[in-house]
Amino acid sequence: MMVSGSDKNVPAGAFVARFLEPEIRAWRGKEPLWKVFWGYGVIVSGVIAVFYALAIYTDQVALQQILLLVSAGYSAWILISVWRCADNMLERYWGLFARLLTVAWAGNVVMVLTFLQFDLIAKYLGH
Question: Which 3 state secondary structure label does DSSP give 86?
C-alpha cells in the first residue's frame, strides 16, 4: 500500500512510522522524561478521563467500554515509556521519582479500570 500526495511512493508503514516518531522514540526511552511524563502521561491521560466522564454523563455504555480498552492500552504504553525515559535526566533522583510514581500509577490504573469494568458489567446485566 502506497501513500499518495506529497509522500508519493512512500510505503504506508513508513508514513505511519514518521507520523508516530515521537511516540516510538518514547517507547524506546529516547525522549526527554518531562515530555513523556507531563505531555503524554498527565495531559493525554487527563483528556481520556474527560472523554470517559462525558460518556458516563451521557450514559453511552458502548463508548465507555471502548474508552476503557483504549485507556488500558494507552496506560500500558505510557507506563513503559515513562519507565524507559526515566534515565534521561541529569539529576538521577528525578528518574527514580518518576519510576516510583509509575509503580503507584500502575496500581491506580489497575484498580480504576477494574472497578469501572465492574460498573459496566452491572449496567450490562441491568443492575
Answer: coil
Rounded to an integer, what distance in angstroms lies between the CA atom of residue 127 and that of residue 114? 17
Q: If we measure between CA atoms, which residue out of 72, 97, 78 comes closest to residue 86? A: 97
120: Cβ contacts below 8 Å, ≥ 6 apart: 61, 64, 65, 68
pTM of the model: 0.84
* CB-facing half-sphere around the CA of 117: CA atoms within 13 A: 12
Domain boundaries, given as residue ranges, for the chain: 32-124
Residues with Cβ < 8 Å from 29, sequence gap 6 or more?
Answer: 81, 84, 85, 87, 88
Structure confidence by residue, pLDDT tens digits, 77-122: 999 999 999 999 889 999 999 999 999 999 999 999 999 999 999 9
User: Looking at residue 91, what DSSP letter applies?
Assistant: S
Rounded Cα–Cα distance for residues 33 and 53 (Å): 28
Q: Is 1 helix (H, G, I), strand (E, B) or coil?
A: coil
**Residue 55, Cβ neighbours under 10 Å: how many?**
18
